Amino acid sequence: MTRTVSDQKRLTQVNDNATRNLSTHSHGVSFDISYTRFNGNRGHNPELQRTLEQVLSELQKEGALYAIYEKNVACFHVTVR
Question: Residue 8 and residue 52: Cα distance in Å, rounded?
């Protein structure tokens, strides 16, 4: 769940969304959740994706987290508040 500074630096070479500055992943307060992998299966599942979006949206409204939709890497970047 955490990334070292060197992990983050390597990630910037393959992921346009990765920050070149210090990442919240390095502090252990952020993680990514794929919206194309459910129950060990990889693939587009619109129903499960909507459910995940709804859960994250509700938790964000409650102030528990921030969730950012990342299209290029098929995940939600989640930061715990």
Answer: 26
- pTM strictly above 0.85: no
Cα 38 to Cα 23: distance, rounded to the nearest angstrom: 26
Q: What is the pLDDT along the chain (81 residues), one digit of tens a residue?
A: 555 667 666 666 666 665 555 556 554 567 888 889 888 888 989 999 999 999 999 999 999 999 989 887 888 889 888
**Alpha helix ranges (H) inside 18-72:** 46-61
Instruction: Let me know: does 15 contact 72? Beta carbons within 8 Å.
Output: yes
Closest CA to 8 of 17, 72, 70, 19: 19
